[in-house]
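Sequence in, structure out. Go.
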Amino acid sequence: MNETKFTADKNVLTIRRTFDAPISVVWRAWTEAELLDQWWAPEPWKSQTSRMEFMIGGERLYAMVGPEGEEHWGLTTYKTVELQKSFSGEDAFCDNEGNVNIDLPVSNFQNQFKSETEKTVVIVITEYASEESLKQIIEMGLKEGLTIAYKKLDEVLNNLKNS
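Output:
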């Protein structure tokens, strides 16, 4: 069983996880809207992408939809993309039109992908404006939610490998 490792240092959170799939498959699961929507939200929530352009300067506007139909929107803006190696950008809470909610923390992130035989190590380094902002995100359930989502990602990757 692959463990998700979280390390916090001041206003930076580093998340490390090994996935049992080749880098080409893991990359697709992180960069294609149809696949992201299959795992990005922790159950019973669902991810629904409104629009996505995975490219430098592109955006992903998506909603986390709860079991009662409630929606929490997010906007990812992509700043760098290095095919099957890394991508970086900014994540923010927003409304359904992509207007950023300045009352909630915004993060700058870099996702790194490293191939290890038939496995892939994903390292997500996320920086917040302050330690308080990072603490707020953790208190909102980031660790629990991402741990559940990564288990769902394992299932998606297994299905992709076997299709």
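Check: The two ends are 22 Å apart (CA to CA). The beta strands are 5-9, 12-19, 46-52, 59-65, 71-82, 86-94, 107-116, 119-128.
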